[in-house]
Write a structure and sequence with these properties.
It is built from 4 helices and 4 strands. The chain has helices at about 15-30, 60-70, 70-80, 100-110; strands spanning about 5-10, 35-40, 55-60, 85-95. Strands 2-3-1-4 form a 4-stranded antiparallel beta sheet.
Length: about 110
């Protein structure tokens, strides 16, 4: 099942390290089937607050997503971004094509 890396990055001034990070990140994703699906700060905010940008990277599965994040190649470049842009990052499983939230609620209600 597809998994996603989702980051909420706060506003920051441009920095040469961040440019280098961006120039190098795709090479760290390639071996794990990762690809950018969303990368930007232009969005239509409908509820709450969202300072900064959102990044969504898709992976074939959670195993690949975890392996990418923990890889020596990504860990090497991570400080280039993390030292200059505050943010949050999660890895999360997607849902399958037959996912139905009503079925999920029925299971929760029944205790199974």
């Amino acid at each position: 099942m597809t998994a996603y890396g989702i980051a909420h990055l706060r506003p920051a001034a441009p920095h040469p390290d961040v440019f280098e990070y961006l120039e190098r990140i795709q090479a760290t994703l390639d071996d794990f089937g990762g690809r950018f699906l969303v990368h930007g700060d232009k969005f239509d905010l409908k509820e709450g607050e969202w300072p900064g940008a959102i990044v969504v990277i898709g992976f074939p599965d959670m195993t690949a997503a975890r392996a990418w994040y923990d890889s020596p190649a990504y860990q090497e470049i991570l400080p280039l971004r993390a030292d200059h842009i505050a943010g949050d990052l999660i890895l999360v499983d997607g849902v399958g094509p037959d996912y139905d939230p009503a079925t999920m609620v029925a299971k929760i209600r029944s205790g199974s």
